[in-house]
Each structure stands twice: as structure tokens, then as C-alpha cells.
């Protein structure tokens, strides 16, 4: 098993040079990880990276402005981002893979599946959306407005309120809120506004009917940032998609909900046809 981070080189002339910070970890059939807005590979998948890497090769590119990837110099483009993630996997020696997309990463994964169908073995879409629902659109606008006013601590408070479940928040004493707010603020990447700008523009609704890869949609029913109805629409729009609900789970899965997620995802991946040697 190996783990390293690198800046990818272009190994496929049909793909762009990714110029992304990429984590590669494990061995076995490849899983390409597509993280959410304002997050990163560790932030989204950290609780399950070691487990999945026991029998999969994980390729985790950081979007521009996340991890060690340089901040974008122009607005993010969904097609370009999708192609750069695929190029990162190919540069890591993985010509085909399942894509695990979370939140914004679900839309990225859908676009990958329709632009590169011969490479995509399966999709797992968690807390995802094809286009921003009203709650997500309002949150994205608030984040952009607060950030423009320099109120980054309020951005962190909004993120905490939106991404944690009421049950998890109820366990916090009001006097103890400063610490998780500070932790959230520290974890926000430099490219956060670029990511949420893309959130407000992304629309893969027309792609859904063209997804041919086996797909598992995971809907956290307690999500207060991306409404569960967005996941239901993904599942309804993708031919043959399976839908799993995580009752009461928030946008950011706590350890117990992530363990349930892992069990469902492992069962789904185990049922896929074996990769050719």
C-alpha cells in the first residue's frame, strides 16, 4: 500500500494537464474521489480513506484552491474540472475507475460519467445535486456575500449550522461553540468562494438520462445544506440508480453515519463486475 501526493503530468493527449494536488493511496480497483465545495479529500473522505485503501486504489485530486492545488485564476468550469480529475486518475496509472462524489462532487462525477463513459465503472453520489436547490442556492449566496464583507467567522458559523445535524449540534454547549467555529474557519480552503461560485452555476440535469454506469445514490435525510429531495431527483433521473437513505444524517456525515455509508458503498462496489487484469 502506498500513499503520496503529487502534481500530475499529462499522460493522455486527449485530456488536459491536471495541475492538481492529488493523493494516491492503496491498491486494487481504482476509486476516483470528487470532494465537495469548501472541502477537500481529507475533509470529505478522511474517516474512510484507510478502510477503502485496503482493497482499492484511491485517487483523490484537490480542486483548485483546496489541498495543495493552486487557486484558480478564472471561474471554475465544470467540464474542465471533470476532465482534470480524469486526467489525474490516468496520470496515476488508472484508466478506469468508480467515482465517489460528495455534494458538488456528485455533479462533477455525473459530468465525468457522461464525458468519459468508457472509463467510469460506477458512481456513488452522496448528498448530491444536479442543480442547486433553493436552500443550497441561498446558502451559496450568503457565503459569497459574507466573504465579500470579510465576515469569514460568520461564513464558518453558517457552514457549521448547515452541515451538522440538529442532534449533533444539541450536544454542544452554547459556550463551547467558539471552538468548532474556529476549527471550521481553519479548515476552509482558499478556493472556497470559487467552489461555491461553481455550486451556484452547475446544472447536470440534462446529463442524468445519459449516465450508463451503475449508480448508487446516498441521501442523508437530515441534510440542511442540500435537501434530500436533490438526491431523490438524482436517483430518479439516472437509469437504474439505487437509492439508499441515511435517516437523520447531516450533510457532513458523523462517524456513525459514515460507518453505515461505508457498509452500503462496500456492498455496492463488491457487486460490480470484476475488472480485467
TrEMBL record:
Please name one Pfam family that this protein belongs to. Answer: Abhydrolase_1
Q: Tell me where in this chain the AB hydrolase-1 domain is found.
A: 29-253
Q: What is this protein called?
A: Pimeloyl-ACP methyl ester carboxylesterase
> Which organism was this protein described from?
Streptomyces africanus
Lineage of the species this protein comes from: Bacteria, Bacillati, Actinomycetota, Actinomycetes, Kitasatosporales
Amino acid at each position: 500500500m502506498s500513499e503520496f501526493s503529487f502534481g500530475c503530468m499529462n499522460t493522455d493527449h486527449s485530456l488536459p494537464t491536471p495541475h492538481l494536488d492529488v493523493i494516491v493511496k492503496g491498491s486494487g480497483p481504482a476509486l476516483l474521489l470528487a470532494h465537495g465545495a469548501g472541502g477537500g479529500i481529507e475533509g470529505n473522505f478522511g474517516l474512510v480513506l484507510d478502510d477503502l485503501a485496503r482493497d482499492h486504489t484511491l485517487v483523490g485530486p484537490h480542486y483548485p484552491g483546496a489541498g495543495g492545488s493552486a487557486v484558480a485564476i478564472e471561474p471554475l468550469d465544470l467540464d474542465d474540472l471533470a476532465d482534470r480529475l480524469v486526467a489525474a486518475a490516468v496520470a496515476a496509472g488508472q484508466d478506469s475507475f468508480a467515482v465517489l462524489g460528495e455534494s458538488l462532487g456528485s455533479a462533477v462525477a455525473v459530468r465525468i460519467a457522461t464525458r468519459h463513459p468508457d472509463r467510469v465503472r460506477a458512481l456513488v453520489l452522496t448528498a448530491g445535486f444536479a442543480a442547486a436547490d433553493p436552500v443550497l442556492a441561498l446558502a451559496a449566496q450568503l457565503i459569497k456575500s459574507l466573504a465579500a464583507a470579510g465576515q469569514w467567522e460568520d461564513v464558518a458559523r453558517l457552514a457549521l449550522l448547515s452541515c451538522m445535524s440538529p442532534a449533533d449540534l444539541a450536544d454542544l454547549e452554547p459556550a463551547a461553540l467558539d471552538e468548532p467555529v474556529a476549527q471550521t474557519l481553519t479548515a476552509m480552503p482558499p478556493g472556497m468562494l470559487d467552489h461555491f461560485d461553481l455550486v451556484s452555476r452547475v446544472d447536470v440535469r440534462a446529463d442524468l438520462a445519459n449516465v450508463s454506469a451503475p449508480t448508487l445514490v446516498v441521501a442523508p435525510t437530515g441534510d440542511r445544506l442540500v435537501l434530500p429531495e436533490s438526491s431523490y431527483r438524482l436517483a430518479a433521473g439516472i437509469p437504474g440508480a439505487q437509492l439508499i437513505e441515511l435517516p437523520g444524517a447531516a450533510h457532513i456525515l458523523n462517524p456513525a453515519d459514515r460507518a453505515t455509508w461505508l457498509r452500503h458503498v462496500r456492498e455496492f462496489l463488491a457487486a460490480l463486475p470484476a475488472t480485467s487484469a
